Amino acid sequence: MNSASTVRRLVASGTSLGLSTIGLLAFFGVWFLASASGLAPKRVLPSPSDVAVTLYQISVHPFAGYTLEQHLTSSLERFLAGFALAAAAGIPTGLLMGWYAPFRYAISPFFDSLRFVAPLAWVPFAALWFGTGFGGPILIIFSGAFAPCVINSFRGARLVDQHLTEAARTLGAGHLRLMAQVLLPGALPSIVAGLRISAGLAWQSLIGAELIVVSSGVGYLIVQGQGDVAPAVVMAGMAAIGFVGIAIDTILLMIQRGILRTWQGAVQ
Amino acid sequence: MRAIIPAVSHQPPQRRLISLWPSMQLTIGGGAVLIALAIWFGSSALIDTTRFPTPREVYSAGLQILTTGYAGGTLLMHALHSMKLALLGFFCGIGCGMPLGLIMGYSRKAEALLNPIFFFIKPIPPLAWIPLAIVWFGLGDSAKIFVIWFSAFVPILINTYTGVRSVDQTLLSAARVYGADRRILMREVIIPAALPMIFGGLRISLQASWMALVAAELVGAFYGLGRVLMIAAQDIYPGMIVIAMACVAIAGMAMTKALGLLERVALPWLRPMQ
Questions:
Q1: Homologous superfamily (CATH) for B59-266
Q2: What is the pTM of this model?
Q3: Coil, strand, or helix at residue A63?
Q4: Which of A22, A35, A199, B227 could share a disulfide with B221, CB 3.0–4.6 Å?
Q5: What distance in Å separates the CA atoms of residue B44 and residue A208, rounded to the nearest whole number?
Q6: Which residues contact B111 (CB under 8 A, 6 or more apart)?
Q7: Quick check: A120 and B124 CB within 8 A?
């Protein structure tokens, strides 16, 4: 930690900050210039400022029936319902598959073949069985989010140290107690990691579903923007979608960190 | 330590139980599938055919799309068209994402320059690009290739970058001490060490490509499995929906398995020992 190395590190971080700024300025600069110079017409590529203005406008004035907030609210309601359903069904399935071999043998032929059906391929049946309002999109979210929940819970259940379960059994832990106090805590980190993956897939599947079958939500907003050939609306919607995606992932990351901390604290 | 203890403590009866497992797996798995099929066949008379197909309907739908065709082509034409687009977009995405990931992983300066841009692009789910792709390119193949390119681009970039960054520093220093120049370092040390991560990224990219293709074809297409799904949904033809979904699954699985084979060939040192 002498002063020369500190200076060198400061210079290095200064250089990387400078390069980052250059990268960002170049990105937005090229975008802005391409649009402002008329090289790319506004009907094709609106400038960054157009997108920002549009983002404000659609959050104040309704577009495609609702304001941006209302679209986001209906998207998030669907997301939460579908994601909760997938977690509630997927985590027990995965854990049971990990703990009871016969159950795994019975389930895995179905699971392995259905897993390869792309979530959006459920769209026709989702519309046919549950309609296009609330139930249909939820089936599609479910089909995107279910598999990671199952796979990670399964892995978590298998990762529990055999010695721990044997020790607990020797000490006289019953079936329920073994599950609640040894197997479930042991599997928890992997389960939460799976939840993060499935939240990302759920959000993405929901956007896909809203593009095709639903008549509210941010996905519907951008597909209406496409119908009106209003790329500024499409891009503003994309920005909102990306932002909500980051927010969801951040919340789950915080939960994951919290659980890992208490989990490791409990072990020590 | 762990690896040794079970080998010593294995009792003969346990071992016999283990050798019985595969057949037990086959019995239970096969039994469950047979029971499910039996229920499906047995309840044919009870099924509301506007909501779920009977086995007979699935059979006739399969026969129809194989021989006379449906939604503008036979099954083979639709499936080949979809797979061609998915692979084209996939290879474009890999062609951009892998070199960028290598560069960003290798050079801190390139990382500093490109990371902020990537930061803005990464959170947007690939499927959200579909409307913009349609505004820019229309309903033809180029819009789909654009969306698939993007879906494949992000995972392979992240994994390549992570793979390069996690190369053992000692290996790099050792290679440098022995006089390896940048090209040799890349070819002999960095890429082989990062290859397992890269293949992980390829698998995620491939699955994302396939998902994006199905979505893009559902939104609007003239050909392909997504188009078959869409037309079947409009015709309320559950038998054809099942056929199209099965094809989506089989084609996706075939491409994933092909990649797995490639991985086994490319990474001989990671094969489980026989």
A1: MetI-like (1.10.3720.10)
A2: 0.85
A3: strand
A4: B227
A5: 33
A6: A16, B104, B105, B161
A7: no
A46-267 CATH choice from 1.10.3720.10, 3.10.580.10, 3.40.1410.10, 3.30.70.260: 1.10.3720.10
Partner-chain residue, chosen from A44, A105, A239, that has the shortest CB–CB distance to B29 = A105
The closest of A202, A263, A211 to A237, measured between CA atoms, is: A211
* AA letter at B161: Y
Rounded distance, CA A128 to CA A114, Å?
19
What chain A residue is nearest to B211 in terms of C-alpha separation? A118
> What does the pLDDT look like over A98-147, one tens digit per residue?
888 889 999 888 998 888 888 999 999 998 898 888 888 999 999 999 99
What backbone torsions phi and psi does residue B73 show, to the nearest 5 degrees?
180, 170
CA distance A179 to chain B (A): 24
Q: What is the ipTM of this complex?
A: 0.85
CB contacts < 8 A (A, B): 165
Alpha-carbon span B26 to B162, nearest angstrom: 39
Among chain A residues, the shortest Cα distance to B227 is held by: A121
Flag whether residue A163 sits within 8 Å of chain B, measured between CB atoms: no
How does pLDDT run across B42-84, given as a tens digit for each residue?
888 888 877 888 888 899 999 999 888 888 889 999 999 999 9
